Amino acid sequence: MTVMEQRGAYRPTPPPAWQPRTDPAPLLPDAEPYRVLGTEAAAKADPELLRTLYAQLVRGRRYNAQATALTKQGRLAVYPSTTGQEACEIAAALVLEERDWLFPSYRDTLAVVARGVDPVEALTLLRGDWHTGYDPYEHRVAPLCTPLATQLPHAVGLAHAARLKGDDVVALAMVGDGGTSEGDFHEALNFAAVWQAPVVFLVQNNGFAISVPLAKQTAAPSLAHKAVGYGMPGRLVDGNDAAAVHEVLSDAVRHARAGGGPTLVEAITYRVDAHTNADDATRYRGDAEVETWREHDPIQLLERELTARGLLDEAGKQAARDAAEAMAADLRAHMNQDPVLDPMDLFAHVYAEPTSHLREQRDQLRAELEAAAETAPEGGTHR
Amino acid sequence: MTTVAVKPATMAQALTRALRDAMAADPAVHVMGEDVGTLGGVFRVTDGLAKEFGEDRCTDTPLAEAGILGTAVGMAMYGLRPVVEMQFDAFAYPAFEQLISHVSRMRNRTRGKMPLPITIRVPYGGGIGGVEHHSDSSEAYYMATPGLHVVTPATVADAYGLLRAAIASDDPVVFLEPKRLYWSKDSWNPEEPAPVEPIGRAVVRRSGRSATLLTYGPSVPVCMEAAEAARAEGWDLEVVDLRSLVPFDDETVCASVRRTGRAVVVHESGSFGGPGGEIAARVTERCFHYLEAPVLRVAGFDVPYPPPMLERHHLPGVDRILDAVGRLQWEAES
């Protein structure tokens, strides 16, 4: 006989205030990542959209290769490649309207470029001539964010402010699998759900946070499952299926714009290159694993679909390659020019008005530069 | 016409009025934080704002300091002027990454394209019998972060004037509110129009010839009391209220020290690595030939803020200040 079955035992009742706030069932992600390419759903996809995605993926792959090559030439201090993740990067940029905002992490240069930012300005941070090369308001792209997940609350605040002003603006914020362990990820999702802010969180689960695999990052069934705890829908998508990522993100953006609140999207993808050019990926993963992902390549998946449906021929492929090559040549040419830096910029933008101690330090540097110019030979370096 | 006697306002009431006036003057001003809405803040500084301006303008947020400041960043990016409350000094630490990695440097990293006009209200300091984590003086952390203004009022009128200036500033301002002065009153009449004080100017609270006490926030009234007591010892002390730690008013400070030739820095924050070290160094560099004695510091001890039953031994009081003033008779001793 248990305690509860004893005669006269205290019978528990729920605490008076307890009631479920949200039905969790509709918020839960599907068991399998959503896919379009190679399935019946592909027949409904817009052929023009698929062709645009293809051209952008080919361009993005070439951009990753060119930027990586620039690190070897010493033109970039570092480059975190998104080779293999191009579908997520491109879809994130293409689903947004002009008035919407993109909040990228440091790895998302490709999404920034696909959003329309000048490819050279997008690399300013990684080259090292300044922290942000572009005007965030010109294309509504926040600065590339190096601390993990700290840009997510910014996206929530901006979307919330836009809604308060009556603008139907959506913010899309990108983060990696490692970033989901940070406190700011939690606080951003919680604020977004409580405020019903028009935000889409895109987690690119590329398998590793530098060297730490997902299994050591989380014990959750999936990262998309985390959404239900905040009271927002979680969606799981094949991150290498450009059509699927585009569809899922479009749904989430539409939902947010219509006042439905935030969505957490987990895209299952893979970082084919190392974390950056400074990382040795062979220390934490085997070639066989990388090979299986190469067979699930986002460009190949889309190319097979387009070819099978007669939407892409050899001339079409060549045109995409030629456009990508032209972009790469242009990027190379611009990156091979030495940036012209003004050391006095150090003091230009710390405050609206420099403080007295900054004015003193500015005078000190100016005097140093003038003294150096007097003793330097003709054509002396600015560095 | 009859004149109605008006009760003098407390510092907390002056802060409330500054917030209300700023919100009425500019619809972009939004107040946010834990308990700032229905409750009016644990110190009642935001009392009545949610009722008057609506919950969208004065918002009770989830309990998460990084989230409060992080979302304020995004709101400022979209053209709002958030005023966030950190409730207690030591509760602000979870927000430090947002403060240091983003708030302080967004203008700089975007070459001036994205300034962040955020005011961060931090009730700080001890002397109210608070338990652990309710009495820290964290100003040195803020001072050490380029891109932030750090301001702290000591009078009721300054509480109003400096908070209005902070909210109007296009740069982020850490606005340190001395908790134990929240209920202090002075002659400021809340019905009279109050001036907006420009940030960055120190003020001489009491003129004197013998030595200068350099102080701010909760230590200003203590220094004024010490200056009165010092008259019995034959010392005529000048008291300078810094009001703004960043930017620092070298001009007012150095003019005073050059007049008196002697200086003591007084604050609650710890001495080692604290604001006094920076202030003493600046004064020494600029006024060395005028100094009759080394610049001394009277500060809190370099211990974690003590439990309330011991805090009176920790906080710089009148006797400790007078002892330091006595030690300024450097020539006689050497």
TrEMBL record, chain A:
<dbReference type="GO" id="GO:0004739">
    <property type="term" value="F:pyruvate dehydrogenase (acetyl-transferring) activity"/>
</dbReference>
<keyword id="KW-0560">Oxidoreductase</keyword>
<keyword id="KW-0670">Pyruvate</keyword>
<dbReference type="InterPro" id="IPR017596">
    <property type="entry name" value="PdhA/BkdA"/>
</dbReference>
<dbReference type="Pfam" id="PF00676">
    <property type="entry name" value="E1_dh"/>
</dbReference>
<dbReference type="InterPro" id="IPR050771">
    <property type="entry name" value="Alpha-ketoacid_DH_E1_comp"/>
</dbReference>
<dbReference type="InterPro" id="IPR001017">
    <property type="entry name" value="DH_E1"/>
</dbReference>
<dbReference type="GO" id="GO:0009083">
    <property type="term" value="P:branched-chain amino acid catabolic process"/>
</dbReference>
<dbReference type="InterPro" id="IPR029061">
    <property type="entry name" value="THDP-binding"/>
</dbReference>
<feature type="region of interest" description="Disordered">
    <location>
        <begin position="1"/>
        <end position="26"/>
    </location>
</feature>
<protein>
    <submittedName>
        <fullName>Pyruvate dehydrogenase E1 component alpha subunit</fullName>
        <ecNumber>1.2.4.1</ecNumber>
    </submittedName>
</protein>
<feature type="domain" description="Dehydrogenase E1 component">
    <location>
        <begin position="64"/>
        <end position="341"/>
    </location>
</feature>
<dbReference type="GO" id="GO:0000287">
    <property type="term" value="F:magnesium ion binding"/>
</dbReference>
<keyword id="KW-0786">Thiamine pyrophosphate</keyword>
Automatic annotation (TrEMBL), chain B:
<dbReference type="InterPro" id="IPR009014">
    <property type="entry name" value="Transketo_C/PFOR_II"/>
</dbReference>
<feature type="domain" description="Transketolase-like pyrimidine-binding">
    <location>
        <begin position="9"/>
        <end position="184"/>
    </location>
</feature>
<keyword id="KW-0560">Oxidoreductase</keyword>
<dbReference type="InterPro" id="IPR029061">
    <property type="entry name" value="THDP-binding"/>
</dbReference>
<dbReference type="InterPro" id="IPR033248">
    <property type="entry name" value="Transketolase_C"/>
</dbReference>
<dbReference type="GO" id="GO:0007584">
    <property type="term" value="P:response to nutrient"/>
</dbReference>
<protein>
    <recommendedName>
        <fullName>3-methyl-2-oxobutanoate dehydrogenase (2-methylpropanoyl-transferring)</fullName>
        <ecNumber>1.2.4.4</ecNumber>
    </recommendedName>
</protein>
<keyword id="KW-0670">Pyruvate</keyword>
<dbReference type="InterPro" id="IPR005475">
    <property type="entry name" value="Transketolase-like_Pyr-bd"/>
</dbReference>
<dbReference type="Pfam" id="PF02779">
    <property type="entry name" value="Transket_pyr"/>
</dbReference>
<dbReference type="GO" id="GO:0000287">
    <property type="term" value="F:magnesium ion binding"/>
</dbReference>
<dbReference type="Pfam" id="PF02780">
    <property type="entry name" value="Transketolase_C"/>
</dbReference>
<dbReference type="GO" id="GO:0003863">
    <property type="term" value="F:branched-chain 2-oxo acid dehydrogenase activity"/>
</dbReference>
<dbReference type="GO" id="GO:0009083">
    <property type="term" value="P:branched-chain amino acid catabolic process"/>
</dbReference>
